[in-house]
């Protein structure tokens, strides 16, 4: 029986650290520190992703995880994924041409990947769930997600939500100006002369085409 609350698994993309859902956060930090000291040399400077399971971490707890990894290894943290994270609550939306209220109650069921960095040209993310980027998505970068895409920054690259065919998927960004936007099998491109939006926007499918709504964001508790 594994006595630790964290488990390391190597993949072709780096390392994934799985956290036992029944363990307390302090126990996870303690075990992670010990395991990193034991195995850090083996993994060297590989990229690492932390899977925290069905739990919600505060920003402080995420910082603690990142600090433990940084202080006890040379691993490069690329994201924290969870099945329980919630997005911002959308209080209202102004669709181009009409006005209506839109409510987003939370992430769809399924896995979520959180990327705490800007995606630069040539970088791509393909994930079988929801993807959240805490940074920008630059031109030449690409996100392909089977669920929703949330960008807490400027989205200028390629975004494909609902990649498995889910037409209820959506794309949300603080500044939505992609070179190509795709939801399921519907594709839209930004006009060549389009100005950068001055407020967050929400893209979704309606009447077999991609619609854009301006939104106001209120962070949920």
TrEMBL record:
Residues 6-79 form the Septum site-determining protein MinC N-terminal domain. Residues 114-212 form the Septum formation inhibitor MinC C-terminal domain. GO terms for biological process: cell morphogenesis; division septum assembly; regulation of cell septum assembly. The keyword Cell cycle applies. Keywords: Cell cycle, Cell division, Septation. Gene3D superfamilies: 2.160.20.70, 3.30.160.540. Belongs to the MinC family. Interacts with MinD and FtsZ. Cell division inhibitor that blocks the formation of polar Z ring septums. Rapidly oscillates between the poles of the cell to destabilize FtsZ filaments that have formed before they mature into polar Z rings. Prevents FtsZ polymerization. This is Probable septum site-determining protein MinC. It comes from Dethiobacter alkaliphilus AHT 1. The gene is minC.
